[in-house]
UniProtKB/TrEMBL annotation, chain A:
<dbReference type="Pfam" id="PF00528">
    <property type="entry name" value="BPD_transp_1"/>
</dbReference>
<keyword id="KW-1133">Transmembrane helix</keyword>
<keyword id="KW-0472">Membrane</keyword>
<dbReference type="InterPro" id="IPR000515">
    <property type="entry name" value="MetI-like"/>
</dbReference>
<feature type="domain" description="ABC transmembrane type-1">
    <location>
        <begin position="69"/>
        <end position="257"/>
    </location>
</feature>
<feature type="transmembrane region" description="Helical">
    <location>
        <begin position="65"/>
        <end position="95"/>
    </location>
</feature>
<dbReference type="GO" id="GO:0005886">
    <property type="term" value="C:plasma membrane"/>
</dbReference>
<feature type="transmembrane region" description="Helical">
    <location>
        <begin position="107"/>
        <end position="128"/>
    </location>
</feature>
<feature type="transmembrane region" description="Helical">
    <location>
        <begin position="235"/>
        <end position="260"/>
    </location>
</feature>
UniProtKB/TrEMBL annotation, chain B:
<dbReference type="InterPro" id="IPR008995">
    <property type="entry name" value="Mo/tungstate-bd_C_term_dom"/>
</dbReference>
<dbReference type="InterPro" id="IPR003439">
    <property type="entry name" value="ABC_transporter-like_ATP-bd"/>
</dbReference>
<dbReference type="InterPro" id="IPR050093">
    <property type="entry name" value="ABC_SmlMolc_Importer"/>
</dbReference>
<keyword id="KW-0067">ATP-binding</keyword>
<keyword id="KW-0813">Transport</keyword>
<dbReference type="GO" id="GO:0022857">
    <property type="term" value="F:transmembrane transporter activity"/>
</dbReference>
<dbReference type="Pfam" id="PF00005">
    <property type="entry name" value="ABC_tran"/>
</dbReference>
<dbReference type="InterPro" id="IPR013611">
    <property type="entry name" value="Transp-assoc_OB_typ2"/>
</dbReference>
<protein>
    <submittedName>
        <fullName>ABC transporter ATP-binding protein</fullName>
    </submittedName>
</protein>
Length: 266, 362
């Protein structure tokens, strides 16, 4: 390698220190929130004067918080299913297809990634106003699918590109019809990519707040929206507890995704 | 004439302006081991893929037992194939890989187990059922692929350079296995390679491909003794080619004159030509001999020694004719000249009559 870490001498320590500072900088606010969620003070004082679980009790006793969490989970799961299914079909066409204009189509599929989310949100809001989809579950799902799908396509296309099409050909000569070959050989062959796409699609929906604020109605809102609206009314540590749970699930799923990637490379 | 078992009938395939194969015509007998031999890009794989149904020919037909198979989709052709790349299904064990063709045919559990066992035993991998493909060597993986391609008793087995990713020693070992399996099963095999030694070792007959066309079909000895074209002569065996011009022509035999006036007479001529046309004299290396004294006029040439290499069982002597063409002669270990020949020596090369062929230069 051009830059060998072990041969950097004194720079090695400098680099390590910079990395540590960066990590702290990124992690501190989250650690702060987690600490506050267990703190006994009502006023989000740091460091907390004592420790308690009462904010969590309050959180779980409030049907509005539970409802928001369930809504988030429900939307996340539906987005995940559609994102993986559509991402798989799109990837099959983009990677295995031979039609003209594949590169253009691919770029088109990925545009939501580079467009500012607010613009997507405003556009969707205007469109959904006519369709009557604002504040509905399908509205949420479609909005989140738009931002989740590019990630699913990138992940699944990547897996498909490294899967040798000759393996599929071999299955076909063995007597499997082209769709049977894809189902029984290609899909299991790219399952790591499918799992990663599923986890990321879920997380994108689970954490998403901008689109969700536009889509939300008083009766239907996701956890991040609930955190946001509560924050504007009342600075209670219950928000810290809800945020901690939100982050906890994200971290767990990220670890699962990392483990899948590690399992694949072994 | 009886209908051939497998008939490749005037297959032509073009990709835009590229002609991949051009009027490939070949009849293969049941149980025959037929090898497609040729340089890269000569259309061997294309012909095989058309047989497998992965490509449609632009023109021509393929008949198995007199029936065209072009309308049958790949998965219903019941043809076996081993690919150049490793194509075992990575998520299935060796046993399940071999069982796969039987499972898609909805065969009963007991029969599947028995057939898988027999197929693995055929490729000498008994007891490997539970191993995962990633935990096997390249040679083992190709043997599993062979078992998978044979387990459903296909009438034809296609092999596209299955050993090209393996090292030489392993390659020879598996070539030997393939020969044995061909004899034991009697399956008709179409084998693609660009390694002439592999082709000669394995095949009943060899089809020499060049630029999308078959130049010649025959057994190894036939091709070696009687190459029809310059290309075939060059591709099989390490021959020397000396460039000259046709001097006289008579009844398929010719005399060739070289620069400087030396003339070689009475060699069989391949291809149509006229007096004065450019032609090559081909000499097979094992039929040439070096002598200090001049040989018979018209069947020997003086040469100058350029380089000497000791190769163990023989000594290779690189020499040049007076007009600059190179040729290599081997001296067996213990040959009286072997220890004495030196760079710059003037010697004579002579050959037995059947070792020389003339080819009109196209
Ligand atoms: N899909 C394709 N599109 C365009 N040209 C192709 C395609 N497949 C093959 N060709 C061309 O057809 C010709 C024959 O190719 P083919 O793969 O049959 O050669 P081959 O004899 O198998 O060579 P190799 O020993 O390199 O495998 C080549 O010139 C190749 O570039
Ligand atoms: Mg090829």
């Amino acid at each position: 390698m051009l830059l060998d870490f072990d041969k950097l001498g004194a720079w090695k320590w400098a680099l390590s220190a910079i990395c540590a500072v960066m990590a702290l900088f990124l992690l501190l606010p989250i650690l702060f929130i987690v600490a506050l969620s267990f703190g006994s003070s009502r006023w989000l004082i740091f460091p907390p004067p004592g420790w308690t679980l009462k904010w969590y009790e309050e959180l779980f006793a409030d049907p509005r918080w539970i409802g928001a969490a369930l809504t988030s989970a429900k939307i996340g799961v539906i987005v995940m299913v559609f994102s993986v299914a559509l991402g798989l079909l799109a990837s099959l066409a983009l990677v295995r297809g031979t039609f003209r204009g594949r590169a253009v189509l691919r770029a088109f599929f990925l545009t939501p990634m580079v467009l500012p989310v607010v613009i997507v949100a405003v556009a969707l809001y205007a469109a959904f106003l006519r369709l009557g989809l604002n504040g509905t579950l399908p509205g949420f799902v479609i909005a989140h699918l738009i931002v989740a799908l590019p990630f699913a396509i990138i992940t699944i296309s990547g897996a498909l590109e490294t899967f040798d099409p000759s393996i599929e050909d071999a299955a076909i000569l063995c007597g499997a019809s082209p769709w049977e070959a894809r189902l029984r050989v290609t899909l299991p062959g790219i399952r790591h990519g499918l799992f990663s796409a599923a986890i990321f699609s879920f997380l994108i929906s689970w954490d998403e707040v901008v689109l969700a604020i536009f889509m939300a109605s008083p009766s239907l809102q996701t956890l991040p929206v609930k955190v946001w609206t509560t924050l504007r009314q009342d600075l209670t540590p219950v928000i810290a507890a809800a945020s901690t749970l939100l982050v906890a699930l994200t971290v767990i799923l990220m670890i699962v995704a990392a483990l899948i990637r590690k399992g694949k490379s072994e | 004439m009886t209908t051939p078992f497998l008939h490749i009938n005037g297959i032509r395939k073009t990709y835009g302006d590229v002609v991949a194969t051009d009027h490939v015509e070949l009849s293969i007998a049941e149980g025959e081991f037929m090898t497609f031999l040729g340089p890269s890009g000569s259309g061997k794989s294309t012909t095989l893929y058309i047989l497998a149904g992965f490509q449609d020919p632009t023109a021509g037909d393929i008949k198995l037992r007199g029936q065209s198979i072009l309308r049958t989709p790949s998965h219903k052709r019941n043809i076996g194939m081993v690919f150049q790349r490793y194509t075992l299904f990575p998520h299935l064990s060796v046993g399940e890989n071999v069982a796969f063709p039987l499972r898609v045919r909805r065969m009963g559990q007991a029969e599947v187990a028995a057939k898988v066992k027999r197929a693995l035993s055929l490729v000498r991998l008994d007891g490997f059922e539970d191993r995962m493909p990633a935990k096997m060597s390249g040679g083992q993986q190709q043997r599993v692929a062979l078992a998978r391609a044979l387990v459903y008793d296909p009438p034809v087995l296609l092999m596209d350079e299955p050993l090209s990713a393996l090292d030489k020693k392993l390659r020879e070992e598996i070539q030997f296995e393939i020969r044995r399996i061909h004899q034991e099963t009697g399956v008709t095999i179409l084998y693609v390679t660009h390694d002439q030694e592999e082709a000669l070792r394995l095949s009943d007959r060899i089809a020499i491909f060049n630029r999308g066309k078959i130049e010649q079909v025959g057994t190894g000895p036939e091709l070696y003794a009687n190459p029809a074209t310059h290309f075939v002569a060059d591709f099989i065996g390490d021959s020397a080619f000396l460039s000259g011009r046709l001097a006289t022509l008579q009844g398929g035999r010719a005399a060739i004159r070289f620069e400087g006036g030396q003339q070689i007479v009475d060699v069989p001529l391949h291809g149509a030509g006229q007096e004065g046309q450019a032609a090559d004299l081909m000499l097979r290396p094992e039929r040439m001999e070096l002598t200090p004294e001049a040989g018979p006029a018209g069947a020997s040439l003086p040469v100058t020694v350029q380089d000497i290499t000791f190769l163990g069982n023989c000594t290779s002597v690189a020499a040049r004719t007076d007009w600059g063409d190179a040729l290599t002669v081997r001296l067996n270990f213990g040959h009286p000249l072997a220890g004495r020949v030196a760079r710059g020596d003037r010697l004579n090369v002579r050959w037995s009559p059947e070792a020389a062929h003339a080819f009109v230069r196209s």
